[in-house]
Amino acid sequence: MPCEMITLQLGQCGNQKNVFLSKNGGGAGNNWASGFSQGEKLNEEIFDIIDREAEGSDSLEGFVLCHSIAGGTGSGMGSNILEKLSDRFPKKLVQTYSVFPNLDEISDVVGEVDPTQVHKSLQRIRERKLAQFIPWGPASIQVALSRKSPYIQTAHRVSGLMLANHTNISSLFDRALNQYDKLRKREAFLDQFRKEDMFKENLDELDSSREVVQDLVDEYIAATQENYCTWEQA
Questions:
Q1: Is the distance from CB of 120 to CB of 32 less than 8 angstroms?
Q2: Using CA atoms, how far apart are residues 161 and 163, in angstroms rounded to an integer?
Q3: pLDDT tens across 114-128, in order?
Q4: Using CB atoms within 10 A of its CB, is residue 31 exposed (0-12), middle (13-18) or buried (19+)?
């Protein structure tokens, strides 16, 4: 679902009638606000396609969204579509595969605006409860790291490894927060956001997004503590 023609080679990709291409072109300019605004304007066209696909299925169970959260279309329009899917199909599953940018080697095209797009996308996914993880305790990791018995199968070791990987992702969010704070202090790239109606009066939503990501980091850190089961965000 690109906003510009040059980003997609269709080939034999499913039903061509149900592939959306923006008539205006130009893309979202790596701007979350622009992508989200275009999602509002193109909402009817996009969901006509989604509704056709849903009606054509034998037994609709849910939706899978693959998107990048570094640019404008994947982060902004992707966030908009996630919200609308949750509203229109409240009883269906929504699985997202969100591609994060490499914050250590930011591309020349996207530029240092990346952390802002990440914050906005994460805020939408988290606030709409579009992703849920089963509660767990640090004891699971301790069990996975315990001595192996030659008489018992230890399938739980895979689960312990996955739990460790989930909590370690907080370092990625930390790097995004640090970069965002530097850019916000210098007010870098904000002129591109002020062009959109939702940011003309103030930039409060950007600051709110930062708080959401910080809460996410705090929860991941808390998940490594013994008292996580009774932990609550302030």
A1: yes
A2: 5
A3: 555 555 565 555 565
A4: buried
Q: Which two tokens stand for residue 79?
A: 């966030």
Q: Among the CATH numbers 3.30.300, 1.10.150, 3.40.50, 2.40.50, which is that of 5-132+169-230?
A: 3.40.50
DSSP string, 133-149: -----THHHHHHHSPPP
Closest CA to 136 of 157, 168, 160: 160
- The CA radius of gyration of the chain, in Å to the nearest whole number, is 20
112/168: higher pLDDT: 168
Return all residues near 178 (Cβ < 8 A) that are at least 6 apart.
none
**CB 69, CB 63: distance < 8 Å:** no
In a 3-state reduction of DSSP, which class is residue 96? strand
> For the chain, first and last CA: distance in Å?
39
Please report, rounded to a whole number, the percentage of residues in the chain having pLDDT higher than 90: 0
Residue 130: strand, helix, or coil: coil
Contact 113, 71 (CB under 8 A): no
Tell me the C-alpha distance between 137 and 224, whole Å: 7
Residue 25 corresponds to which amino acid?
G
Amino acid at 44: E
Q: What is the pLDDT of residues 53-104, one digit of tens each?
A: 898 888 898 888 887 777 777 778 888 888 888 888 988 888 877 777 665 6
Q: pTM above the 0.85 mark?
A: no
How does DSSP classify residue 3?
S
- How is residue 153 written in tokens? 């199968």
In the chain, domain spans: 5-132+169-230
